[in-house]
Amino acid sequence: MGRLATLPAGGSMVVQRRFDAAALIGLIARHRATTVWLAPAMVNAVLMADEVHRADLGSLRVIMSGGEKMPEARLKQILDLLPGVWFADAYGLTETVSSDTFMPFESMHAKLGSVGKPLPHNRVRVADDSGVSVPPGVIGEVLVLVGAAFTLLAGIGTLRFSDVFARMHALGKASTLGLLLVLLGAAVP
Fold first, then answer.
1. CATH match for 111-189 among 2.40.280.10, 3.40.50.1820, 2.30.38.10, 3.30.160.100
2. CA distance 43 to 45
3. Running DSSP on this structure, what letter comes out for residue 105?
4. pLDDT at residue 80 greater than cutoff 90
5. Residue 148's pLDDT band (cuts 50, 70, 90)
6. Higher model confidence: residue 66 or residue 97?
């Protein structure tokens, strides 16, 4: 579903140079867009625009989001407005190539507010203050082990990101299904 795969697969792409919610709604309707990427602040702006209730957005199949956790109330609003649309919430750090977790379609409604499961190249765990993993349902710090081959050059040698867990600086808990729930506004220093 990556942007780079769209064109070789025969798709087309519409780029909005500067975000404007009303204009974006018009672009989706005019071009019959099927997928759009929106940060939570952009979702908020779209929901507040009068045009969202008048435009034909029936072509939309997927809304990808990331950059921060989507508040559950906003998520419910967008799903009520656009039933049948997959809100593919992604969560992660820029340092870990951004999307560390991704919400599967089949879990979207049942686990409203979760940021999904780790992508195949990542491992996510929730740990206590000493870094020890906690069982599902227990709140702790969210940590991500990235399997991508990134290398950080240090004065004394090379440290591979895949060798360490990156701190998300957020509190969360895992479910028994492997889904991650990040607690909004709960930051770890």
1. 2.30.38.10
2. 5
3. G
4. yes
5. very low
6. 66
Exposure letters 29-65 (e unless 16+ CB within 10 A, then b): beeebebbebebebbbbbeebebbeebebeebeebbb
Total residue count of the chain as it appears in this document: 189
Q: Rounded to whole angstroms, how far apart are CA atoms 171 and 186?
A: 6
CA atoms within 13 A on the CB side of 127: 17
- Burial, 100: exposed, middle or buried (Cβ in 10 Å; 0-12, 13-18, 19+)? buried
- Residue found under tokens 């989001």: 65
Going by C-alpha positions, the residue among 161, 187, 181 that lies closest to residue 117 is 181
Beta strand 165-174 pairing with 180-187: antiparallel
